[in-house]
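Hi W., the protoporphyrin IX containing FE complex you wanted:
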Amino acid sequence: MALKDKIAETQIWRSIFRHGYPSTPRNRALAALSNVFLHLHPVKARKSGIKLSFTWCMGGITFFLFLLETITGVLLMFYYRPTIEYAYNDIIAMREHVPLGIMRELHRWGAHMMVLAVWLHMLRVFLTGSYKPPREFNWNIGVILLLLTLLLSFTGYLLPWDQLAIWAITVGSNMARAHPFIGHEGPGASLLAVGDVNLVTPASDIRFGLLAGRFVGAGALLRFYVLHCVALPLVAGLLMAVHFWRVRKDGGISGPM
Amino acid sequence: MALFESFFNSLASPELYTLIFTGVFLLYCARYRLLTRPGWVVGISLAIALFFIIGAQNHDFMTIIAKGDNMPIVIMIFAVFWCLSLAFRQAAVNDMRIEKGEPPTEALDSNKKVLVWPDLIYPEFVCTVLLTAIFIAWGIAVEAPLEEPASGTRAPNPAKAPWYFLGLQEMLVYFDPWLAGVVLPGMIVVGLMAIPYIDTNPRGNGYFTFKERPFAIGMFLFGFIVLWVSLVIMGTFLRGPNWNFFGPFEYWDPHKIEPLVNVNLSEFIWVGMGNTRLPDNPLIREAPGILLILAYFVITPALLAKTILKKFFHEMGFARFSILIMLLLGMASLPIKMLLRWTINLKYVVAIPEWFFNI
Ligand code: HEM
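Structure:
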């Protein structure tokens, strides 16, 4: 008996996988069926759909980058404290005192490339008409994932707390000041007043809510940190599960009828 | 080298840049069967690469592309071009097949099913390993940027948004923040989400084609390539201190002065043509602009429904058609405002700064 078959017979293997080594069609089907991660895939797929020239593997690359960001991000969280006193110095320490100090690099290049990969994935889905029935809803999940990817990247940009970070976020969040009705420099904001008292002021508008202050400061740093490390990844992870599930349920990767 | 630099610098102005970009885009759509041939794709890629290699000899240009955070934009230029070529090459092949009455290539094996383990898991695994290696190499080779500690009082010049939002920052040149930062991005998101529900064309589902859905693809790509990707490139390489426009090989002089000569529509009408003072009541003062905007969003759809888009109107029905046209008019407002700015120095069509309501 070959070694791999012997291993596949042991109680440990059988308790984990519940099928033999995936070298027969039956075991290969079971491999995809009985594993919660592989089960995001179907058991069988359209041959035209899994070609590299068709999907460019862009959805998969996006997901890979999300995983890369999660792993490197957790490692970065061990060393980083989201306060004005510590943030910048912790970032420097990551480079100078931490062994294998390229986690920040991986995390940053991965983040840039994830934005690009989502765009290209959307481009391919559009150009193959894969948003057409029955995949309309999954396209919409995708649009939200696109937004979440941008927001993840945007909130992360602030965390190094250097000049680049604080001013990029200042430029970005200044737009919120002009939000119609709920930004204090937006059209219609002056309509929201009780008597002479303006309800929408620099200290109560949407930008204030986003930044927890009138300027990009300690409150904003903490808020962006929590959004970046907890809230947004959770939502994105959840929606990705829905996204993949829907790819299967909508009949697998699209192909001509 | 000097010739090379001055040639590209002389081409560089927001007007020329955008017009050339649009022209190349239209040419590509018209000639995609030729331009996606492997020889052309390699040739164009080499030309772009050559531009960067020669350009890198220039100190100012080199400072820009050597920034770690600008690498993604260089990668984006190539990635978008290659992906488009790959898609349009397959579209070209399919379109020729369809003209001959054959099914698209994807149909040849779309009914064959293969086991995901190993036929999909294996390539996925290889892809994962390769990408991991690439990112580790990249991480070792290039340090992540870190500037001086944050200071709320010393603003850098230019202060740029993250690269993927540079399109929005560029829109700020032409629109106030409530439009460029809130309404238009909102329309992009809503518009993207609406696409599956307003595109009723059943053809082109699950294979690459251009000929079977030229309108949908043309509009989407115009938005993505000409109004988004091109503005990201421009924002990275051509916008310097005070958001002034600089040629790719021009020194970013923070003291460069651009004359501000922009005029509001109401000033054109009352002062320029009527030879009177601006009326005090903002609604009367801005009446021409307000009427113009209303006409843009009410009369244009009706006109289009009766003329060139008549067929669409009948196929799609009133609701879908109205939403489509609103979204397209929203998208078109950017190039229209650009053109008005470049030709007649128009600042605002409607200018009511009292209420932060400028269009
Ligand atoms: C975090 C972001 C995203 C991830 C991880 C992701 C992942 C994936 C994966 C792995 C697939 C399988 C096929 C493929 O690789 O192309 C897929 C399909 C699909 N994605 Fe995404 N995606 C994301 C964002 C988006 C966006 C932004 C859109 C569109 C706006 C989108 C729309 C779709 C649609 C419609 C399909 C089905 C395509 C077909 O059946 O041919 N996704 N996605």
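The pocket of protoporphyrin IX containing FE is lined by residues A 55, 58-60, 62-63, 66, 118, 121-122, 125, 128, 130-131, 135, 138-139, 142-143, 145-146, 149, 240, 243, 247, 253-254 (CB under 6 Å).

W.
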